[in-house]
């Protein structure tokens, strides 16, 4: 009897303790990710507009400036975070919506491809593991299945996703974080307050890390390279592309989740670097009606100032002045959407 | 592939399942050899050739020694085996060290030298399997064992994956007889093996890898830290290196045990020893017994008068230090221990019994920790500077920062756990509990161990040796 019951009870105890620990695991603290979510959880009913996306959103959208352009008293919060791709964005968005923010009206999401692989900069870190819920795993595996990558690559991508999912389920390596969290030893209180004060936005100029200073210096030294990239972006085709391999189901789930929360999705291509977004596919999505609203800003012909050296911190990100300029423009466009006066 | 990685669990599940499904002993051994080479190839398949050379050399030398009688020919076979094995070890591990040290010596003598060094990758586990393979030939030469007939048995003895890359260094007389008889699953102490593996995992992933977070920055720049911080770092490094290596040994013994093979014990609470002599008898036991049996005793051991005994002790420990790595730090580490062991021998302090003695333990730990500072620092200049600081000659500040008190508490907690384990307070109750109690305790412990592991990838320290 105990030959079977012992191992079975062992597996049961393992799963129960792992589930408990997983439930207790705090959010990763990378660039204030956990601090932002905590702040939002405490003040969820204060916001009408949320922004989600990568560092391009994080460093470009200044909520206070956007708010100035909006009619009435709308409040915005920027959930952008460096390296955040579609599946992580989707997880964060769904977690935020699960809090049932009472006044949420608009959810602005950076339009990106639903990548089949895990962002290499995050692979095998808790940052890549935390969003691997069973639901996200299932969507990610759909992307792998649809991917045009060779079968062997798809096999390893599947294994990667499964291992990250197992990591998430077992709260692997999160014990210290859980203990510190339970003890109330929050190390990022200042960060939380600072991010809260600026609606989740933080300019690159304020980062203490030397890496950013170096990045800025390199950008200033290699302006030609940036300008060549801008020139290439100017001449890039703007015709809608193919949707082959695109995970439409994931997109539809996201849109349905936003609408179920009583909000309306707006997809955005921010003034990022050339090649960052799969623009032709996104344009096709809009044209085919899969995306209800799309705002496109990565067009140096139309938005030349957004691609000027003086508005950039590095080749990928706007500086404080650039972010303020862009946010005014974005606020203006959102105002037009809200009042129903936007013509395109 | 590390024992602490998820892919090892998948790998081992496959090895374990197929091993016990195969009916014939020969097939099982072939399967284990294949698995062992695959395990090694996961690191770098090219260096499998070195294992093959070492295996072939000692198999041929062993067979020849078994056949021939004239002492001169026997000696020639032994020297041949030593030359090839130690030649490979020197070429891959010590070539640059000897060249650089030689040219530094020439320059010190005023003779200009242009050192010629090579970009050599240290083959994983070379120090371990070379010693293991050599011991077989030496034992046959001494007439202590008979040569093995089946090359598969010998290849598995050298390449058995649980102990291939970081020991324990197994003797042929311990392992080869186990290969002759078919293992039975019923004879496997599953509960003991699973518990030992979990203990090993906890030591490595939860303790050693967390200690590294505090230790590494201090050893990278000891001058920027206070005297007590440096003592704390060296002490925590002591925990790190012990938990890292004994954790590996535990997992190796457990893994082998689940396949039906018994590997020798490698650590027996060395930090609770009351003298350095006893500490070395309990630390990396399979290496110290190798040096004792194949170097110290052939040199005359302690039977050739006091001066010779002391010289032997110092020489053996200098070489034991050098075994750890191609750096003068390791040689000085070995010499440092050698000198203290001689001191203990002279003063008879080293002849204390296994009974724990607080003052003896304190003295042992102090010497061990200072020696580890030499062992861990990147070069001798930093080593001497750090030891100087620890002894109060140079550190600008004395105190610990408040955050470091957590680590001090960790140190105290470790000592308490060691004492509990040494006294075997939990052994009997855990051994006698029924499966329906053991199962949930084990399952919950595994979940907690995974959660409290350091998720960053950290190879075992002894892989570099």
Could you describe the 3D structure shown?
- The complex is a heterodimer of chains A (about 350) and B (about 475).
- By secondary structure, chain A is of the alpha/beta class.
- Chain A has one domain (about 25-120, about 190-340): Rossmann fold (3-Layer(aba) Sandwich).
- Chain A has helices spanning about 1-25, 35-40, 55-60, 65-70, 85-100, 125-130, 135-145, 150-170, 175-180, 190-195, 210-220, 225-235, 250-260, 280-285, 320-340; strands at about 50, 75-80, 105-110, 265-270, 295.
- In chain A, strands 2-1-3-4-5 form a five-stranded parallel beta sheet, sandwiched between helices.
- The model of chain A has no long low-confidence stretch (mean pLDDT about 90).
- Chain B is mainly alpha-helical and about 475 residues long.
- Chain B has two domains: about 25-180, no CATH class; about 190-460, no CATH class.
- Chain B contains 19 helices and no strands.
- Chain B has helices at about 5-20, 25-45, 50-65, 70-110, 125-140, 150-160, 160-165, 170-180, 190-220, 225-260, 275-280, 285-295, 305-325, 330-345, 360-375, 380-390, 405-420, 425-430, 435-450.
- In chain B, helix 3 (about 50-65) packs across helix 4 and helix 3 runs parallel beside helix 5.
- The radius of gyration of chain B is 23 Å and the shape is globular.
- The model of chain B has no long low-confidence stretch (mean pLDDT about 90).
- The interface of A and B includes residues 2, 7, 126, 163 and 175 of A.
């Amino acid at each position: 009897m105990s030959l079977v019951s012992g191992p079975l009870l062992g597996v049961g105890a393992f799963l129960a303790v792992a589930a408990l620990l997983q439930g207790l695991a705090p959010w990763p603290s990378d660039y204030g990710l956990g601090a932002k979510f905590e702040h939002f959880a405490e003040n969820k009913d204060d916001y009408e507009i949320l922004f989600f996306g990568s560092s391009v959103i994080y460093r470009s959208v200044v909520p206070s400036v956007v708010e100035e352009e909006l009619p009435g008293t709308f409040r915005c919060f920027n959930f952008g975070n460096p390296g955040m791709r579609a599946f992580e964005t989707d997880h964060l968005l769904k977690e935020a919506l699960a809090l049932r923010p009472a006044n949420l009206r608009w959810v602005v999401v950076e339009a990106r491809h639903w990548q089949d692989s895990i962002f290499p900069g995050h692979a095998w870190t808790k940052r890549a593991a935390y969003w691997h819920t069973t639901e996200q795993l299932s969507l990610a595996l759909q992307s792998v299945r649809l991917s045009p990558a060779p079968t062997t690559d798809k096999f390893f991508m599947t294994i990667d996703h499964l291992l990250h999912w197992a990591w998430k389920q077992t709260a692997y390596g999160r014990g210290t974080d859980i203990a510190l969290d339970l003890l109330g030893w929050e190390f990022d209180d200042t960060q939380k307050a600072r991010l809260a004060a600026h609606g989740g936005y933080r300019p690159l100029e304020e980062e203490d890390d030397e890496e950013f200073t170096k990045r800025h210096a390199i950008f200033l030294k290699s302006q030609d390279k940036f300008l060549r990239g801008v020139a290439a972006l100017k001449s890039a085709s703007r015709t809608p592309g193919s949707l082959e391999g695109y995970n439409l189901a994931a997109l539809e789930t996201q849109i349905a989740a936003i609408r179920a929360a009583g909000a309306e999705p707006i997809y955005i291509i921010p003034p990022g670097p050339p090649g960052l977004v799969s623009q032709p596919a996104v344009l096709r999505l809009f044209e085919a009606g899969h995306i209800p609203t799309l705002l496109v800003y990565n067009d140096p012909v139309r938005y030349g100032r957004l691609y000027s050296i003086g508005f950039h911190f590095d080749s990928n990100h706007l500086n404080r002045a650039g972010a303020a300029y862009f946010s005014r423009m974005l606020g203006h466009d959102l105002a037009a959407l809200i009042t129903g006066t936007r013509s395109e | 592939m590390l024992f602490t990685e998820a892919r090892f669990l998948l790998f081992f599940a496959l090895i374990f399942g197929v091993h016990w499904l195969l009916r014939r002993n020969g097939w099982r051994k072939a399967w284990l050899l294949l698995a062992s080479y695959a395990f090694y190839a996961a690191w770098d398949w090219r260096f499998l050739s070195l294992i093959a050379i070492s295996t072939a050399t000692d198999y041929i030398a062993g067979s020849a020694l078994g056949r021939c009688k004239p002492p001169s020919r026997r000696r020639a076979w032994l020297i041949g085996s030593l030359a090839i094995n130690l030649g490979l070890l020197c070429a891959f591990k010590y070539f640059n060290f000897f060249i650089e040290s030689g040219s530094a010596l020439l320059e010190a003598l005023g003779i200009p030298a242009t050192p010629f060094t090579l970009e050599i990758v240290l083959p994983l586990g070379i120090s371990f399997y070379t010693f293991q393979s050599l011991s077989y030939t030496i034992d046959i030469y001494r007439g202590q064992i008979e040569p093995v007939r089946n090359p598969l048995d010998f290849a598995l003895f050298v390449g058995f994956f649980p102990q291939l890359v970081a020991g324990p260094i197994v003797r042929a007389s311990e392992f080869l007889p186990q290969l002759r008889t078919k293992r039975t699953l019923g004879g496997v102490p599953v509960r003991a093996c699973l518990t030992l593996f979990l203990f090993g995992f906890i030591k490595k992933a939860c303790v050693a890898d967390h200690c590294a977070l505090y230790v590494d920055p201090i050893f990278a720049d000891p001058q920027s830290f206070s005297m007590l911080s440096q003592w704390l770092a060296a002490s925590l490094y002591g925990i790190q290196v012990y938990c890292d290596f004994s954790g590996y040994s535990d997992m190796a013994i457990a893994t082998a045990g689940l396949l039906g093979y018994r590997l020798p014990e490698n650590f027996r609470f060395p930090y609770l020893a009351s003298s350095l002599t006893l500490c070395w008898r309990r630390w990396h036991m399979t290496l110290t017994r190798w040096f004792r049996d194949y170097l110290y005793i052939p040199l005359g051991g302690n039977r050739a008068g006091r001066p010779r005994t002391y010289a032997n002790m110092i020489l053996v420990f200098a070489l034991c230090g050098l075994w750890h790595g191609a750096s003068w730090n390791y040689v000085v580490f070995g010499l440092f221990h050698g000198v203290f062991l001689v001191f203990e021998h002279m003063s008879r302090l080293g002849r204390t019994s296994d009974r724990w003695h607080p003052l003896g333990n304190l003295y042992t730990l102090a010497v061990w920790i200072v020696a580890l500072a030499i062992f861990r620092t990147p070069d001798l200049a930093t080593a001497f500077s750090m030891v100087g600081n620890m002894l109060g000659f140079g550190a600008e500040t004395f105190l610990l920062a408040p955050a470091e008190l957590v680590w001090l508490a960790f140190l105290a907690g470790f000592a308490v756990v060691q004492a509990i384990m040494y006294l075997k307070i939990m052994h009997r109750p855990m051994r006698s509990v029924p499966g329906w109690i053991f199962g949930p305790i084990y399952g919950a412990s595994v979940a907690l161990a995974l959660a409290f592991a350091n998720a960053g990838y950290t190879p075992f320290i002894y892989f570099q040796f």
